[in-house]
Design goal:
Length: 309
């Protein structure tokens, strides 16, 4: 384990102190990011490691809810590992998706099919969409066409839609981004008209050009996530915790990137992986190696909670 990781002998102490300082056992929950945090990818296979599954089952049996907080759109969560997550609690899964802009629960029908039930949504305003498209139009006018616009309607059944300004690239994009419900190359003015008529929760702009070509465009990055002003993963966590009667400050949160801003709103922040993440928990912060170690921590937390009861 690298120097930046919390030593194993200190993890227990952090957990004990958190349980002493907080009301986790009665008011808290577990809020976790998915990719890079609670799920693991191995040679293209994405799955929930057994330690995470066992740890969450133990905590759920002790009365602690878990909430998924992800950039992924609901269909992606359900298609990729929805049934596995549902099996952990055998109950509807609270979900914050699209960087905090869509919150709800994943339910299972009597036939075993999963569906998303919206609780609240915070789509981009018409002005915000216009601003994003103005930037896209500027790139195109300046000859930068190696761009993709991903957009996510409020209607979760529509999934992920990708726009490319190059019609010849449609098949290549479809093959690369198999999660997309549709790939389109309509003329740019038509794209603007379409987005003006829909409620869009998030737009993701991907630009595939060298960084030096972007230097001339102020505030432009290779990747940009656009949600309504003030909406992010912390905002989404705050909103959904009210609906499920969870006190965020008495909870633990786990994430692996600077997008996981909800980490600064929880009592115990778990930072997974090697990325530079600056967020600190309100009471304690632990740095872990990977999802497997995160699962072991959850299991140990459940043990310590039982000892205290």
């Amino acid at each position: 384990m690298g120097d930046s990781m919390t030593p194993d002998n200190a993890i227990d102490q952090h957990l004990r102190e958190f349980l002493q300082q907080s009301n986790f056992a009665t008011e808290g929950g577990v809020i976790t990011d998915l990719d890079g945090t609670a799920v693991h990818e191995d040679r293209g296979r994405i799955y929930i490691p057994e330690p995470v599954e066992f740890g969450l089952k133990q905590l759920h049996s002790a009365g602690r809810r878990f909430i998924l907080n992800s950039l992924r759109f609901p269909l992606s969560v359900m298609r990729t590992f929805g049934k596995e997550w549902y099996a952990i609690s055998n109950a509807p899964i609270p979900l914050v998706s699209l960087n905090g802009s869509l919150i709800g629960r994943v339910n299972r029908s009597t036939e075993g099919e999963l569906a998303f039930e919206e609780i609240e949504a915070f789509p981009l305003t018409a002005t915000e969409i216009e601003e994003v498209l103005k930037g896209v139009g500027g790139l195109i006018e300046n000859g930068i066409k190696d761009i993709l616009v991903f957009y996510y309607p409020r209607d979760w059944r529509m999934g992920e839609i990708i726009w490319t300004p190059i019609p010849e690239n449609v098949m290549r994009v479809k093959e690369k981004y198999v999660s997309a419900s549709a790939v389109t190359a309509v003329e740019f003015p038509k794209l603007c008209d379409q987005l003006a008529l829909e409620e869009i929760c998030m737009i993701f702009l991907l630009i595939d050009v060298p960084q030096d070509q972007l230097m001339a465009y102020q505030h432009t990055k290779r990747t940009n996530f656009f949600t309504r002003k003030g909406v992010d993963k912390l905002f989404g966590a705050e909103k959904i915790s009210v609906h499920f009667d969870i006190d965020l400050a008495q909870s633990i949160g786990a994430g692996d990137t600077e997008l996981d801003r909800f980490l600064c709103g929880v009592g115990l922040a778990i930072v997974v992986g090697n990325a530079e993440v600056t967020f600190k928990g309100l009471m304690q912060t632990i740095k872990l190696r990977d999802a497997f170690q995160f699962g072991s921590l959850l299991f140990r937390l459940a043990e310590l909670q039982r000892e205290r009861n």
